[in-house]
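Cont'd.
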Amino acid sequence: MINNAIMFSEYAKVYRDNLLNDVIPFWLNNSADDELGGYFTCLDTKGKVFDTDKFVWLQGRQVWTFAMLYNNVEQKQEWLDFALHGASFLLKHGRDTNGNWYFSLNRSGVPLTQPYNIFSDCFAAMAFAQLYKATQNELYKTIAIDTFNNILRKKDDPKRGYNKAFPGTRPLQGFSLPMILCNLVLEMEFLLDAKIVEKTINEGIEKVMDVFYQPDLGLILESVTPNGDFSDSFDGRLVNPGHSLEAMWFIMDLADRKKDNQLMKKAVDIAIDTLVYGWDEEFGGIFYFKDVKGHPPLQLEWDQKLWWVHIETLITLIKGYYHTNDERCLVWFKKVHDYTFAHFPDAENGEWFGYLNRQGEVLMQLKGGKWKGCFHIPRGLLQCSNVLQSLAEMQKNPILINA
Amino acid sequence: MINNAIMFSEYAKVYRDNLLNDVIPFWLNNSADDELGGYFTCLDTKGKVFDTDKFVWLQGRQVWTFAMLYNNVEQKQEWLDFALHGASFLLKHGRDTNGNWYFSLNRSGVPLTQPYNIFSDCFAAMAFAQLYKATQNELYKTIAIDTFNNILRKKDDPKRGYNKAFPGTRPLQGFSLPMILCNLVLEMEFLLDAKIVEKTINEGIEKVMDVFYQPDLGLILESVTPNGDFSDSFDGRLVNPGHSLEAMWFIMDLADRKKDNQLMKKAVDIAIDTLVYGWDEEFGGIFYFKDVKGHPPLQLEWDQKLWWVHIETLITLIKGYYHTNDERCLVWFKKVHDYTFAHFPDAENGEWFGYLNRQGEVLMQLKGGKWKGCFHIPRGLLQCSNVLQSLAEMQKNPILINA
């Protein structure tokens, strides 16, 4: 049964090699705008720029990635310089006069899209927090904290004037922001007041695990009523399995910090249930969207297989195994790993394809665009390789699993 | 070569049968909300309601369809009553206090989505104009004219406060509204001042054929700069072949009215060029979106095959042949007809599937939803069957074509 063995050290090497010898060089070599600053993210299969618009959240994510690599992997000057290159563009062009981060800029930094999207703020805060850790530059600290406080101020009405919903008819709360705050608060813990950290963590866990998680369904919904009830509407029926699975490793990190084994176990159970629900038994891979009542969802792209869904799921599974020894995590890790590494990485030109059709064929000839940048893959490769390495050190022998 | 023969009378019968014995009964039987008024449009494969939201533009389109059938096919009381059923719901709930039509309502008619979308207004205007023709009720006439004038007032800033674009950085004009005005003005001609009709027609033709049509590309773009120039951006590079093809029969109708043979011929040429460009040589069918420079478009659904694209193209091709005798139209008509009737109609449960994947398999198990209602298919089936019938009467023998 050696074929089914998870040789942790070998897997760790696969993830680390892909990160350091493929994905990171791809962005270093192809994405800098040396002339006008910031990063290009619209890169074709070979890494050639096909559009020059600059999406603020992707700029922030890439700054975060290189600062985080500098802080956590190796203090390479090249990585820090690359992060600073993006940060300087963001500082010059990223915000309006009220400190809200625009959604997108043109190549030279003139605003293209209004700051309607609070995720631009979230990733800017993460970016400048990591950069402060790397440089101790007080300016970055101030920007990170100010942006975080602005997020908390806006969080109950994140779209502000750009919300097209008629007020009051069908009020819904969305999963994305509470979920991301669970991660952001740990990212920024060293900069924040301890009380705010505790409050944000406890609220985040409650929202994710008690409000959006529906015990009768065994699933997390993307939108629920203000009371946390099910809304039988397109928005209310929507399940985004990748989102739920990503949230589970945010929760595992919080459970680990709190030494809360019950919370950890619950996160593993939800992850496995979501994976069983979201897995495409016919072609493999995890669906992008499903309607919880089995109706057709609004999203025409529902059956596609996306890069971030798969790498985030791998983080969740390996962390779940590390913390609980639950063998289901390992069985699924191997299954998702095999699908992912057979379909997404581009051995010829580097990096990963982002979008596959249901059958697993490449749907978009790109490595980056408006929604795919330098973030999920490097973050996931590093997290997985670190956890796999810890497992390898704990237990030298391969584990046989019934895959 | 009898297999390649277009027997116009037989084809006419196929379209008329599908309209009268399948599609129209499907909506009559399944879509009425007898309790709270208006129509359900979210119908599953068998016609069962799976969501009760009411999208104002689809309500308007369905009112238009049944009033139009009453006016143009047969004065069936059932059809008129069905149109009036939807109109009464729209009158009660459809507009804000300034006469703007909401985008969507909940089942009982309370607004769900603000009136950010000018197409709600366009289809309301069409609906009440047809209903006035059927009933001579002055109220409907007033609403149609008021709504038309409101559209003209809003047309240079159709999204009004809901536009997220930062003003001035990359101003673009969109193809949809000028295109639809080319059709709307003929629909409402009998209600409008002759000077406004002439002005709207001439402006519409100029916009579609001189501003959005790009002679160097041989294609129509969805967005161009205010001067009509190409914008090398995601929006500026976007081609929607179905949109361009639909617009060509609107232009043919105007060319016919103006007795402008040169305009007619140009519309046929653009239609054929667009079809050659948009046709999927591998799996058949017409792509939903393409990037004119061959880059990945933003739209993840770019390779899907949609019902409206195919039925609108059939109208264009048969009208093009009728007016010009251009044999390319007939060759393509047969090719698109064969693909369409092999893939979209559901012989078992009636009506057409709306969304196929690139391979031609059903992607969404629905007959109606947020974007598909009772409109394109009945309109297209009637237009095609009428033109085919005229061709059959003009020329009794089959025409052999080199398909």
